[in-house]
Structure formats: structure tokens, C-alpha cells
Amino acid sequence: MHKIFFAIFAPLLFLCAPSFADFPEKNVVYQITFSPGGGSDVRARHQQPHLEKELGKKVVIQYKPGAGGSIGWANLVKQKADGYFMSGINLPHIILQPLARKPGYQTEEIIPVVLFQQIPFGLTVLQDSPFKTLDDLISFAKKNPKGLTIGGSGTWDATHIANLQFEMMADIETTYVPHKGGKPKQTSLLGGHTMASWFGPNEKMPHGDKVRTLAYATENPIQVSPDVPTFKSYGYPLYSSVYHGVGVPKGTPEEHIKVLEQAFLKIADLDETKKVKLKVGIMPIALDSESAQKLIAEKKAAWEPIVKKFSN
Amino acid sequence: MTEGIINGLFQALEGWNLLLIIFGTLLGIIFGSMPGLTATMGLALLVPFTFGMEPAAGLIMLAGIYVGAMYADAIPAILINTPGTPAAIATTFDGFPLAQKGKAQEALVTAAFASFIGSIVANIVLATLAEPLAEMSLKFGPPEYFWLGIFGLTIISVLSSGSLLKGYLTGLLGLILSAVGMASLSGDVRLTFGFPELQSGISLAGALIGFFCLPEILSTIIGKGQETYTGEKIRPSKKNLFDTIFALIKMPFLLVRSALIGLVVGIAPGAGGNIASMVSYSEATRCDKNPEEFGKGTIKGVAASEAANSAMAPGSLIPLLTLGIPGSPPAAIILGALMLHGMQPGVELFSTYGGITYTFMMGLFVAAFAVLIFGCLGSFLFSRLITIPAKSLAPVILLMTVLGSYAVRNNLLDVWVMLFFGGIGFFLNKLSYHPAPLVLGFILGPYIEEGLVQSTMIGGAKGGVVFYMISSPISIGLIGLCVITVLWPILFRNRIPKNQTTDDQKTGDGTINADVVMGIITLCITAIVAWSIRDLSFYGVLFVNFCVVCMAIFGIVIFLKGFFSPKKINIFDHALERNRVISGFLIITGFILLIQFLGFFISSLIFIASMHSYLNKDRMTARNALLSVCQSVLITTLAYYLFSKLLLVPLPTGILFNS
Question: Could you say which architecture CATH assigns to the domain A122-234?
């Protein structure tokens, strides 16, 4: 009788005290908020075998694409906050979407686990463009208000905000032309339909010598193109990048976040990971959960007034 | 380069690689032929496996999948009037009537042979002219996209010359549907009626399945109680096979022209794929001596559509390989696979990775031969599928429609949308409105809108929007094509196919004045749309306003037409049919509702068993009941494993079981 009693209650004891249990005990879902085969997917596929090794469990990749990622993030915040469901996150998307519309989630409902790569934007023109430096471009814009067309990846995304900030800093007016994502933006510039465009180094690379970047919106010249100056060096403190990482729903236990964070940081630290990223023009970084949360809070404070000012 | 091509060909024909191509092609045929499974899903499924392979080996397997799927989407289009992928819409126009006449095998062989020719022609161009063509594709700016979209819309006048008014009205409805969700450029949220999930818009797969597949099942199988999909006997034979191929060889002009159209339309990044076959179909109708044959079941129609959509595949790879810009969703996955192997498309691909690139291109070439062989052999098997009793086949197809519309974005709302469109499609069919113009409008809407918005922005910066939109040579050429296509049915009234896709035969003794009803519905929709977009930004409503104005005009015209020359029709022939359709629709609705509570597995078991019993006209015996149960267990388990375990689709578990 005692034995039966014990057999029933012993497992219950474990249920009562999940903190004693090792995390993870079952497969972890890694949600991709964009279509299969895209950049987010390829990245997750690279991480998958390493993650499985680190966590000791299978990592299942699931897709929930749509509306610039917001369908997936709205799905993320609806999941049980136990660490078994994580999702790829993109900055500034998860900050700007809730500011500009009602995407079905709030920025604060997503806790970043880690940010592992950064893609800075630079103002890029065709090789034979008359704009040889950033100053050439600015003086053209000053002489032709709204006459300079600058392409970007969308409305209320990183490139759009960068363009608005650039206009304010340089005191110019341009015509910002949004596109349906990064690829059409590239063809627009290559075909000469826009005069300049916000390109990441990874977007510039495939086109070789056909395009030139005038300046990058970073603190220091970037590792993959050290010769290109920064906006800062021209006197405009403009910083604009897309960051990629992983997040979990708010309320996920600290210690579970820690486990996932350590696994991702370890992968980010591998030489192979860095080499693969740099080769295609992406900057490897390794921001832990705390620094990522700080970065999000900072960016949100900086962008909220801009979105408020220019929408409506 | 010639050396590269020859080396590539040898590489592709090498034992292990050849096996991979054949395996890929077979898999592509499976994914293309099931409505709901797409080439994109098949490619995404296999990309991780290519990680461990040699880059060339992995890529040619993907080539096989792409080519196989581009042929196989014709199979369901021919057999059950459901395009396997959007690119096969035009294949249904003649393929399905052929199958209904008992000529399913002829249609299937035509699809295989035309796909083969389309692939070969396009591959030759890809191998020789990739770079200049890529340069040409860059010339496509916002105005060119706008006019390409408008040109695509004008095809409606050829597709539905039976009733231009109806065709254009459904096209406009399609344009409005395409505006649902987040505006891709301005970011405005439109017409979502408070559902955040609708921000991603209506899924094309859901709309296609809803408009093509469901109405057919509702009206013939459920409503009329037909026992098989086709009333005619189907007898596949070797004679049929060779006769069809000889007939096709006698029309090289049609095949090559269709292939070139598919290729050219496929190159324009993003725009082409889905409409290539419709452009080619309308050109075939226009150039033929007997245009009245089209739409009633001619192999010429199937050949025009399939040659174009198979040529589109290599076409969409041209901007991918040369510029790193994928021309279609499957091409985007191939880009992902290239990146996985650290290969950056663009300038380096033909130099640094030349060997792999040429092997890949030759892989496409070899896969075209595999398609021809499998297609001809398979025609014996596939054509027999529709002789399976409808009571067994229809529940499976219905299950696939639900799964397919769900799995594209793993979103249950898409399934409801599919069902909703199925209901609407049913009534539109009964009122002699063809779904093709609607889907055409739905596909082209985003390109027209983006072209219009960006042209307005860039033209504004250049100081003249109208001048910017009509000044480039390509724009002028496209405008010319638009004018010719619109005027064609009016100028050559004697040459147009009569009653081709829609007909006004049903006149007389009904109770509903169809035109008046449609006019009122159109005006209601117009009012709702106009009201719900009142607060959006200028660029967010530019395109919608344009549609609203056109819809209002068409709504009034069709209302007046119905008012002054009333044509009364009946939706159902008799009360029994009405009751059957309604109860059939309710069973499907109940199934989707159940999924939310009981999860996919249990609901499917219940659904298949009940649908099977409902369609079964024999007396309900213990043996029949057991058969129903066995069938439902077998099919559900198969579907469950395929989607959940193999494709890793997170199937709904239901509220009750969601711990």
C-alpha cells in the first residue's frame, strides 16, 4: 500500500517543484516569423544542430509568417511562458510595429533572450552616380527639396526611421520610397529607379562593384568595409541597424531564459559562426538578455516621438 | 561557358546525382499534385537535408523538386478543377472540361509534354542569355509594374468574352480582396475588421482552394449527388498517349510561343509566375483559328498554359542566379539553400562557383526529361484516380483543402477564409461568374498598387507623375498591349469565342434577378470599403479609392442592366439539391469548428467518417459503417503523419487538449 502511495505522489512532488527539474525536459520550439528559406530561416537552420547539442533536446523549427513578422510575434506572446517556445525576433520591428499599428502584441510582452547579429544600414548609390560623397548628396537635396528619391525596405521600419532621422539632422527634405522588403529595394536602385537607397552590407555584397555605399550609420567603420566612412564622421550622429535575436514570452522563468541565453551565446562565440556571418556581410554580436532589454528600452524612447510626429 | 555547360551536364548525369534529380522530381510531382502542398513547402522540407550534401548534389535535388512541381500542379487542375499551385489556374480552363469528357489521359500527357518543351526552351535561354536578360529585368520600375499589372487585368476581356461586364466586375472584387491586410508600402492596416491575423492579408492558397475546389465538390458531388468526378468512362491506353504527343508535335509554334511568354513574364521579379500561364492562354486563344474551342476542352489550352508555367521556373531563376533576387517563392527557397552553402548569388556565382551553378542549370534540364517520362507513365495511373467513387474521394479532397489552406501559413483563420470563399465561389458559379478573373485581380492587385504608389512618389520627385508613368519604352509597349487586348473582343466580335467561360444561357423561369442582386451586393461592398478606409493615409487609400470608383460604376451598370432586361435564374434546380448543399456545407463548417476544440486528429476522424456516410447512397449496414471508420482512421493517420511529423506543421491540438 505504501509503495503504491509513493508511486503516485513521488512524481507529483516533482510537478510541485519545477525549479528542481532540469530545463529543458522536452523539445523546444523555435518559431520563425518569416517564410521558409528566408534569412531568418537559414540562420535558425545554422543554429539548430548546435542548439540541440547544447540543450540536449530536439529543437523544432516552426513557421508563422505574415505582416512583416507581426503575426508570429502576436503568436509568441500567446504561448505558455515556460521557455519551451521561443521565436526569432528582429529589432527594430518589435519596437516599431506596436508604435505604428495594432499588431496583436506589445514590445514589453517579448523578453529578448539574446541578440546575435547586427546589420547596419548605409546610404548606397550606383557606381556611376554623381554623388561621390555624402556631402554631394546632401547639397543636391538642399538644392532640390523632395527631388532626391531614397529607397527603403518599408514604412515604419529601420530604413524609414533612419531616413527621417537623417532628414532632420541634415536639415533636408527627400522623397522616401518604401518597397515590399529588401529585394525589390535592391532592384529599384540597380535599375536606376531610385537615386539612393538604404542598404545593409549583406545587401550590397552580391552586387559587387555595381553599387557604392557613401556612409554607414554606425559608431565606427564596419569590419567588412572599413574604408567606408560613418555618418558620425560627417557630423551626423545617425545610428541605424537591424538586430536579430531570439525572444520568449513575458513571464518565462529567469533560470530558463538563462539556459537558452547561455546556449545561444556559446554558439555566437564559435569561430565558424562568425566566419559564416562576416562572409555574407553580417556583423556577429553576442548581446545577453539584460543588455538586449536595455537596448530595446533605449531605442524605443528615441523612436517613439519620431513615429508620433510623422504619423498623422 | 560552353565548357561549363558540358561539364555541368556530365556532373548532372553522374550516377548519384542523376538519382537525386529523379528523386527530387518524384517528390516535386507529389508536392505539386496535392492541392495545399506547394513546391515551396517541398523545397523547404528538403533544404536542411542538402546541408550535409555536396552543394551541387543538394542543389540539383532542389532543381528536380521545382521542375516536378511545376508540371504536377496540372494534375489536380485537370482532375478536380483545383490548380495545384497558382501557376496552373489556366490549366483548369481546358484541362477540367477534357477530363469531364473522359479525356483525362490526353490532358495529362499534354501537360507533361508541354511542360517538357517549356522547360527545355527556357533552360536553353537560361544557359545562354542569363545576364542580358537579368539586365533587362532591372528596367522594370514602378511604372512598368503598374502597366504589367493592368495588362494582366485586361486578359479578363479575352478570358471572359462571354460577358465582359461580369468578368471585369469579378476582377475588381479580386483587386479589393488583395487590399485586405497591411498595405505593403504605406503600412496602413486596411479592411481587417479588427482581426490582427488578417493584417497579413488573405492567403492566395486559401483563396484558390476556396474558389476552385470547394464549389465543384459542393455542386456536383454533394449537390447533384454525382457518384464519380467524371460521368464518362476513362480508358487510358498507349494509343491515346502517342496520338496526343503527335498532335502536340504538330503545333510547335504554340508550344514555343507559350514557353517564351512564360519565360519573359517569369523574369520580372515577383510579378510573373502566377500570371504567366494566363497571359499565354489568352494569347493562344487570340491567335488560334478556332478560338471557340477554348474553354470547352482542347489540348491546345492545356499546352499553352503548361508550357508557360514550366518555362516560368527557369525564368524566375535568372534574376536569382545573376542578381540574388528570387523571381518566385520557390526561387526564394533555392536562394536560402545557396546561402546555406555559403554561396552568394550575384557576381560570384558564375565565376567562383561556376561549376556548381552550371551543374544546377543542367540539373533543371535533366529534370525536364524526368518529368516527360514520369508524366507519360503516370498518366495511366493519375487518370484513373477520378474513377474512385466520390464518396471515398471527396472526403479526402476536403480534408486536403482544410490542411492545405492551414499549412501554408499555419493559421486557422486561413481555413475559415477558404470556407467563406468556397461559399461565395459556389454562388458566383451558379450566377455564371467564373472565378478566374477574381483570382487574377487578387494576384495582380499588389503589383498594380505598388506600381501606382511608387510611381506617384518618384514621379512627384521628378516633377510629373503622369509623364513618368508613360514615358519609358517598356511602359509604352505595355500600354499598347493593354489597348489591343481590351479592344480585341470589341473589334473582332465575329472571332471571339462565344460563351467561353461564362454563359447567359439560363434565362427565363427563375425567381432571382441575378444582375439586380449582384448590383446591390457590389454597391454594398463598395460602401463598406469606402467607409472603412476613410481614416487612412494618402498612399494607403490611393489604390483602394481607384477600385472603389470603378466598383461603384460597374455596380450601377449591372444593376441597371438587370433592371431593364431582367434575367431570372434559380440557384438550385430543386429543394433536395439545396438541402444537400446546405448540409454538406454545414458538415465542413462543423469540422473546422471541431478542430478548434478537439484538435486536428479527432475532428478529422469524425469528419471523414461522417462525410463518407453522408455521401454513401447505399443502405447503412454494419459493413458500410465499418468501412467508413477504417477509411477515416487510415486517411487521418496518413495525413497526420505527413503534415505533423514530416512537414513539421504545428497542427492545432484543440482547446480541450491544450494543457
Answer: 3-Layer(aba) Sandwich (3.40)
